[in-house]
Design a protein that fits this description.
Two copies of one chain form a homodimer. With about 450 residues, chain A is of the alpha/beta class. The first copy, chain A, has twelve helices and 22 strands. The N and C termini of chain A lie far apart (about 70 Å).
Chain lengths: ~450, ~450
């Protein structure tokens, strides 16, 4: 292996751990710099467009539509090496990142962009019962559970068990929880309307549970109220000031605003609450003595580096990126994109020996979509026009998400799928995949199936 | 639940087991018939467009692109009930199909359309080593293995192990094996060309093994030779009259035409040989005393019913559908579609008390695609024009597959993805998903990684 071209001497070695929004925007921003040698380490071979993951979970999109191979995104960057591997440790003195399987990677500057995942706080045993939504596997598992629940209800003769199969509880009223609830409302009342014979999907109960006094806490109260109205129009019960105290395969036990407890029988509980940074960021904090907050996010300097370690950046959801006093950058895609880009800018200017500015988050606003043709926005720089609900919010959401989708082919595919979903009220990718293909039967002795005689069933379905 | 309309008395109850091409075409054909009450039973909630499954395995399409939910395909058929369930037994006297979990389903006429899957003959232990290609899960598993192999090679320092990671063996030279080999050749020489730094994907060895004296046995010998030339142009080694005698994680042991044995070190062996009908068809044969062939296919009467049981049809890959003397209908999509449609036609005419014809397979010809812009066809009714190779074959293949893809939105999505793949030489859905995300390391003590120093690596990649 002979070099066809002599590489520049003493190039600055930048290692990026994590290929999500923050890591990818840092890598792309440094990719054209001949002074920099870039290594990107990720456990997965593709970055995921997280804001659309709930659409995979609800059958509107395929996993491939919202992901693009990391190597193909970065293959034009001649200064970049991609390593599929898991970073498990750091030696800040020797400036090396340690991998689970493979030799250490040396760096001159390190960018930690490992993001966050959901957490069940003190109840790790809830993970198996109530899946969260962070990975492609989570999304196809949630899709499987939602579709299987309707299938099981169709076959269940016992009215109580049937009701439990048709009750969906979503824990957490943030953007993910709200969007999941809206999509579920649409599925029950619209998509599946004509698909079953023994059940009416429109009779499904969809319950959104939030611990504080309103949903969508990052938005102003007026927007939260608008979102709640729109969800209720889709048949979603919104329960604020309600806490989950127990969770098992039979259902959820909650305490309401007045402290009274209630058990909701449900076979499908989805988790959209609680965020914890990935382990590597916490490992780096421990090795460098940096402080973390309750969610494990690393407290960084105004330039996003670790105190005393100007060569280590922590960006995106792994860090408490400063913004307003007592108000860090929100954990949204824009925060990660801007954090990653900032780290790259600082590195470039340092390499050139130039001064640089601290990180400043520029709030482009938030948009959440609630089912078909409706949503809420909160876009500060548009003034009063930035506070939209309903159709305008939905249109804005559409444009913004298409704009940020990486990979041109995916943009077209997603547009086609959305156009189709919109025109036909269908959801094309409602595939039940995985190992457990058939719904478990609720009782030890299987009851006589409801749709036994096709004659009866057709009549009932009319 | 009150019927809004009185169902017709004494409707003829038809139960279809299996929702592949054969079952689905039977169900759709009977779906408008008010004299019939139809029940379709399938283990999966979606039919799969099998002819394009290899494209999922090779990252050109997503699983959702080639599948459509069964309920949404059939939801307009008011006389049809879909049951997600596994048929495990039959009582031919009481005319009932038994399900694994749930009460029996009564029928007046039964259509068995449960298809076939691959088999490892007397070596079930090979299944874990060399995955076959029949389900969506198979396809994503094969995709994972192919992509992981290149990733592992990129990280492997030992040249022998690296070579084993970059050697791909495909067992079976039928259409699936040929199309897989062609797609792999394209991936290695084109798609991944610029994606790695330490390895050259173009140096991958792709070996296609076939036991008889030529690949694509359903085609005339001239077409087989053309396919072999086209594969060789893509860098695929074609080995005919070669048998696999042993398979393990280290590689494949084969015996060649002259009887000499050879071991091919390979970490990725794919299985495209051996077909066995699904168990339910064999259960039905045993319960009714019908004969089966070596592959477990049920020997049926000229009208596709079981001897002595005119009320039980066996169609598609589950049956030996008659065609020419000593030459049954080939196990392709067209055979299944025509078999299912025939059963529906006979049932309709019987209900009306009219006479009906025996099954006659109409050969529309075969098309296989071999990588980019090339393929082979064998289309009898086009005369000499039906024997095409190269680009014409590729275009024909494109048109035919788009035509038969179920679900209009999927057709557009597939077209967009193909156009993109064609224009950019990329494959958008190269996602490594599943539980084992990282490649296992070949040696107990991990060697120093090849791309340790980014400087070196960039030079090597030029």
């Amino acid at each position: 292996m002979v070099a066809s071209q002599e590489p520049p001497r003493l190039a600055h070695r930048v290692t990026v751990v994590g290929g999500g929004f923050a890591g990818l925007y840092a890598a792309r921003s440094l990719g054209i710099d001949p002074e920099v040698r870039l290594t990107l380490v990720d456990r997965r071979n593709f970055p995921l467009f997280q804001p659309l993951l709930y659409q995979v979970a609800t059958g509107a999109l395929s996993p491939g539509d919202i992901a693009q191979p990391l190597r193909s995104i970065l293959h034009k960057q001649r200064n970049t090496t991609v390593i599929l591997g898991e970073a498990v440790g750091i030696d800040p003195d020797r400036r090396e990142v340690l991998l689970a399987d493979g030799g250490p990677i040396a760096y001159d500057t390190l960018i930690v962009a490992t993001g966050a995942h959901h957490t069940y706080f003190d109840h790790p045993e809830w993970a198996a019962i109530a899946p969260g939504l962070k990975t492609v596997e989570d999304a196809t598992e949630i899709r499987r559970r939602i579709l299987i629940a309707f299938e099981a209800a169709e076959r269940e003769a016992d009215p109580d068990l049937r009701r439990a199969w048709m009750t969906f509880v979503i824990v957490g009223g943030g953007p993910t929880g709200v969007e999941l609830a809206g999509a579920l409302g649409e599925i029950a009342h619209d998509t599946l309307r004509r698909d079953f014979r023994a059940i009416r999907p429109g009779e499904a109960r969809i319950i959104l549970i939030e611990a504080i006094d309103r949903i969508l806490p990052p938005y102003p109260p007026g927007r939260s109220a608008s979102a709640q109205r729109q969800l209720e129009r889709l048949g979603v019960e919104v329960r604020t000031r309600t806490r989950v105290v127990h969770l098992d395969e039979e259902g959820v036990r909650v305490t309401g605003p007045d402290g009274t407890a209630e058990t909701i029988p449900s076979r499908t509980v989805l988790w959209a609450a609680g965020v914890l940074t990935a382990k590597f960021a916490r490992t780096v904090a421990a090795a460098t003595g940096a402080a973390t907050d309750r969610a494990g996010r690393v407290i960084v300097e105004p330039d996003l580096t670790i105190p005393g370690h100007p060569e280590i950046f922590v960006v995106g959801d792994a860090a408490v990126q400063p913004w307003k006093p007592d108000h860090p950058t929100p954990g949204v895609a824009q925060g990660a994109i801007q954090g990653g880009s900032h780290a790259a800018r600082v590195i470039r200017r340092r390499v050139l020996g130039r001064p640089y500015e601290p990180f400043r988050y520029s709030d482009h606003g938030d948009v959440a979509v609630i089912g078909r043709l409706s949503g809420v926005t909160n876009i500060g720089w548009l003034g009063p026009f930035g506070q939209q609900g309903g159709f305008t919010a939905w249109l804005l959401w559409l444009g913004i998400h298409i704009l940020y989708l990486i990979g041109f082919s995916n943009r077209i595919v997603v547009l086609v799928r959305w156009a189709w979903t919109f025109l036909t009220h269908g959801r094309g990718t409602r595939l039940i995949t995985g190992s457990e293909l058939l719904p478990p039967i609720g009782e030890p002795e299987p009851p006589v199936m409801a749709p036994l005689d096709p004659d009866e069933v057709v009549a009932a379905g009319d």
